[in-house]
Amino acid sequence: MKYRSEIDGLRAVAVVPVILFHAGFSVFGGGFVGVDVFFVISGYLITAILLAEIEGGTFSIEKFYERRARRILPALFLVMAACVPFAWLWMIPEQLRDFGRSLVAVVFFVSNFLFWREEGGYFAAAAELKPLLHTWSLAVEEQYYLFAPLSLAVLWRFGRRRVFWLVVATAVASLLATEWGWRYAPRANFYLPQFRIWELLAGSICGFIASGRTPRPNQALSLAGLALIVFAILYYDSSTPFPSLYALAPVVGTALILLFAHKGTFVARLLSARVFVGIGLISYSAYLWHQPLFAFARIRSMGEPPAWLMLALAGVSLVLAYLSWRFVEQPFRRRPIPLMPSRRAVFAASAVAAVPFVAFGLYASITQGIPSRLANPELGSRQAYLLATVLPNVLGNKCYAGSSLQDADERGQLCPIFEPKDPKLRILIIGDSHSYTILPAFTEIGKENAVYRMGLGSCPPINGASVRGGVFDDGVCPELARRQLELVKKGGFDVVVLAARWTLYPIGKDNHFMLSREGDSYYPSRASSQETFATLLPQTVQDYLDLGVAVVVVDQMPEQLVLPQKILQQAALLGVGTALTEERFEAEIWQTSPTIEEEDGRQAYVQGIFGQLKGEKLWVLSFDEVFKRDGRYVWGDRNGSFYMDRDHLSGYGGTLLEPAMTEVFAEISRRLRGPEGGL
Question: Which part of the chain is the Acyltransferase domain (predicted)?
């Protein structure tokens, strides 16, 4: 097909925002849509080439896959090989184990399935530490190419028009699937091909149109296409449901450029500028190099690398991209290749080159990250102790019902935590997983008072509220809240404690965990979720106060920016503060924590709702002072981590709340029991 320089320019528009998005520059919050632009371009080019070959009688499936091997594998294998030594030197065992698994997955082009199955999502902070995360998009493309050429060749007997409308119907079905997927299966929706295929097929539709009767150049439509892409790049972010109907902006925008930005249009002249074309030519290699550079920079640094370093690495990715394009991509795409004179030799060489990656990846996975490579595999007794503080260890994990699906069956269970004889007070703690991690704070209280917990991870203690896009079906959390209220109605409790990750539910997380009133059929917006929270939380507090019990609302602990386990293990691996007693290391710990202003800003909305709560027997407790050091809410000290992840307290952290909690409940006991000691 005829070369179009503006398509190479469009590749530059796609890859640069992706790189800057992964570098952490918020102005490119929607830079991830560059991948969607690539999907449409790929679908267009492949379809146009296949149609020309099928109609010309020159189509060969072997030739097609040879072209793909020459195009994709040399640069990909080079980048994978470059990652291995840095992974060996800098990755903690858990990270190297996961890296090994990703090596194997990349070789077989199934890394999208691997990342789908792993915890967290594409926008999670932990994803930034995965050097091969970006290969999910290559896997989706190759899965498409596995079926598209054969399907096109087989179905061609039914005629071009029928095949075209079948492609359109499949694209529409996939688009409808992704609109369902972002609500109910967000990780699968992002990674799996059935939810992405419509973007590639949008390019295929353009290929059908362009290979039939080429549309005339159109200034307005081509400008609209570019505007749609730029709009998505600048105005989308990680909270945008994606992919979904929102993805129509970059996809339709790319299609408009492919169809109408021909020579003579402003967009074609702009995209054909030398700088855009140059970056576009090396865009594949640039895409391959940028994520490993950023991931290893983040792994090597205990905190977030400075912006200047990430910007410099973005530049380095372009330099490496040029070198690999010039000396790897180009030579392998030319024929013949020395030592690989035939198609069979190309396939054989590809298989042989893949073997070391599969072998190393399996070894890293089976050995759980090859801990023997470390100078001290156990990280030393001091490190082992500090790492142990990351674990919850909450009273022997007693009666823990977390947030997995099987835990839903335990939602009606009342769990006794402390049951002394003749208790002064009977205390019921309800809430999500945060209500579990504060249990160590009740150790002293439990010597004279009975303490029970009834809760389920991801279910806030809010009556009449459904958590949409959460872990459970919509009815699970409201049913749990009803059982909690009914339990208190039956009597026998003096105090109800409400504890949760309060900031999660008003605004959600990546457009999930949003609140709606039970029975509402619509999916909530952020505004409606906030309204539901602002209405139902005060009502819930009042529901319990009306039953005559005292109510204690425990404020959410400050949320952290880093994973403590990663910081502690990384420090030991890199030899920073080997005994973790140096002032320098403690200072570095605190620098990875949020400032008081940052965290207070994040919790401002919830604090405003807490300020509206009223009642004679109501206490709202905050433990922020426990975590304040030098203007920050820190996640640990020389004795260990206060957190087991970014928002849940560790066993050690839970014990730090005990003095303040004991003092508050002593006051509550005096208030409730009166001077004569009776209730």
Answer: 6-325
* Element containing residue 42 per DSSP (H, E): helix 34-56
Report pLDDT for 399.
65
Q: What are phi and psi of 643, to 5 degrees?
A: -125, 150
Bridge partners, residue 466, by sequence: 516
Kindly give, in sequence order, each residue whose CB lies less than 8 Å from that of residue 619, ignoring residues fewer than 6 positions away.
550, 551, 552, 553, 664, 668
User: Alpha carbon of 85 to those of 131, 316, 665: distances in Å?
Assistant: 12, 18, 55
Q: In the predicted model, is pLDDT for residue 376 greater than 70? A: no
Contact, 416 vs 452, CB < 8 A? yes
Residue-wise DSSP of 495-546? EEEEE--TTHHHH-BTTBSEEEETT--SPPPHHHHHHHHHHHHHHHHHHHHH
As a whole number of angstroms, the distance between CA 528 and CA 511 comes to 12
Report the chain's mean pLDDT, rounded to a whole number.
Answer: 87
> Do 373 and 99 contact (CB within 8 A), yes or no?
no
- Distance (Å, whole) CA 286 – CA 321: 5
What residue type is 349 in one-letter code? A
Strand (E) or helix (H) holding 453? strand 450-455
For residue 476, give the nearest of 484, 485, 466, 486 by alpha carbon: 466
User: Which one has a higher pLDDT value, 217 or 509?
Assistant: 217
Give me the DSSP letters along 535-590.
HHHHHHHHHHHHTT-EEEEEPPPPPPSS-HHHHHHHHHHHTSSTTS--HHHHHHHH
**Could you give the angle at the alpha carbon of 360 between the alpha carbons of 354 and 364, nearest 5°?**
145
Distance CA 397, CA 406 (A): 17
Instruction: Please give the pLDDT value at position 587.
Output: 67
The span from the CA of 262 to the CA of 607, in Å, is 55
Contact 156, 163 (CB under 8 A): yes
Distance CA 42, CA 138 (A): 11
Answer for the pair 195, 112: CB distance below 8 angstroms, yes or no. no
Among residues 128, 80, 84, which one has the least CA distance to residue 107? 80
Lookup: tokens for 655: 């014990």
Nearest alpha carbon to residue 570 among 557, 585, 560:
585
Domains and CATH numbers, the chain: 5-368 (no CATH), 388-672 (3.40.50.1110)
Judge whether residue 380 has pLDDT over 70.
Answer: no
Q: Taken in order 387, 393, 397, 400, is the CA torsion positive or negative? A: negative
Q: Is the pLDDT of residue 119 over 70?
A: no
In this prediction the pTM is 0.80
| CB 255 within 8 Å of CB 205 | yes
With residue 649 as reference, give the H or E element that holds it: none
The tens digit of pLDDT for each residue in 6-21 reads 999 999 999 999 999 9
Q: How confident is the model at residue 390 (pLDDT cuts 50, 70, 90)?
A: low
DSSP 374: S
Segment 467-486, tens digit of pLDDT? 988 777 778 899 999 999 99
Q: pLDDT over 70 for what percent of the chain?
A: 88
Q: 457, 403 in Cβ contact below 8 A?
A: yes
Closest CA to 37 of 252, 241, 191: 252
**CA distance from start to end of the chain:** 87
Please report the pLDDT score of residue 578 as a whole number: 46
